[in-house]
Amino acid sequence: MTRPGLAVAGVTVRAGSVTLVDDAGFTAPAGALTALLGPNGAGKSTLLRAVAGVERPAAGTVEFEGEDLLALPRRERARRLALVEQEAGTELPLTVRSVVGLGRTPHESVLGGRDPDAVAAIEDAMQTAGVAGFAAREFTTLSGGERQRVMLARVLAQQPRILLLDEPTNHLDVAAQLEVLGLLGSLSAAGTTVVAALHDLTLAAAHADTVVVMAHGRVVANGPTAKTLTPKLVREVYGVDARWIDNPLTGKPMLAVARAVIE
Fold it and tell me: What is the pTM of this model?
């Protein structure tokens, strides 16, 4: 039986008179990797920011195992949930180890007390994200892909129960993309509720247990990946043809896409 995870209902985000996300709702089960999909401008990033409480929604609720996350104080929410944004980072002259260490901030005492688990959590996070080899380098000297890995290590050090990621495979080569998605799969299998916005339908179909599909600021589908990403839905949302086939290398189902033929 699937354990309850993240439940989002009726989330609306406006910028002035413009509605960016309209009455969006979805569920993301614990122990599963959920891909947030949709064309450019569909509202994926805004919805993730609203779920994280970074962008305060005009309406809606965000609950985790029955707890209202948006009602929690910021520090308490940060102990449960972490967000990795597309261009997250810092231009301060901090080492990789120091940047990863920022993930422990929610666990520190407000009076400046020592975090006894910090060193072990930071080292483990760097090893898991594959950045331990350049822990002493300044963050500003890293490539885009290396920075992405460091920010992932930072949230791993935070040890959240909910992990939200906006394009975590951005700037990464193919091998690194597969490594990151494999890592996210391992985290979700260990119980973390993972929601990742992805552009690549093929990668999402191959790695996500469930999907949330957005179009024009609304959630138009949510459910198990193979049952939800139907050829009809993909064509309606993306304007491309799609078909589930067996991957000749792995034998597992994969989603093949091609430019739609205009009849």
Answer: 0.90
Closest CA to 198 of 22, 48, 74, 75: 48
Q: For residue 58, which amino acid is it? A: A
Looking up tokens 């191959």, which residue turns up?
Answer: 206
What are the two backbone dihedrals, phi and then psi, of residue 46, each rounded to the nearest 5 degrees? Answer: -65, -40
pLDDT (0 to 100) of residue 92: 78
For residue range 20-70, list pLDDT tens digits in order: 999 999 999 998 999 999 999 999 999 999 999 999 999 999 999 889 999
**How far apart (Å, rounded) are the C-alpha atoms in residues 249 and 186?**
21
User: What HEC string does 183-237 produce?
Assistant: HHHHHHHCCCEEEEECCCHHHHHHHCCEEEEEECCEEEEEEEHHHHCCHHHHHHH
Residue 89 CB burial class (10 angstroms; 0-12, 13-18, ≥19) = middle
Task: Assign residue 224 a region (left: φ > 0; alpha: ψ between -120 and 50; beta: otherwise).
Answer: beta
**How many CB atoms are located within 10 Å of the residue 42 CB?**
22
